[in-house]
């Protein structure tokens, strides 16, 4: 199993827009071999942002890497960006392989 996470430091007054973008997106994840599940998580609030994480579970790292090279990935990430900054900094990717 492989878990792929992206952490987003979302500007406090942009959280509704950020969540709506995720709710309205066409992810195409369910078209991919090895995709297990997806979650968007809202985390702790800091002085200048609220932490969010997108969390996908894959059967293997190879399945995740195939997703990142796929036409479905390009389609899922082609949505026009917001007209204002939503993040503090850039999203941070973290990948984890199951040990136990």
UniProtKB/TrEMBL annotation:
| Residue span, ABM domain | 2-96
Gene Ontology molecular-function annotations: monooxygenase activity
| A Pfam family reported for this protein in Swiss-Prot or TrEMBL | ABM
Q: Which InterPro entries match?
A: ABM_dom, Dimeric_a/b-barrel, Heme-degrading_MO
Keyword Oxidoreductase listed? The answer is yes
- Supply the SUPFAM superfamilies for this chain: Dimeric alpha+beta barrel (SSF54909)
The protein's UniProt keywords, in alphabetical order, are:
Monooxygenase, Oxidoreductase
- What is the protein name for this chain? Heme-degrading monooxygenase HmoA
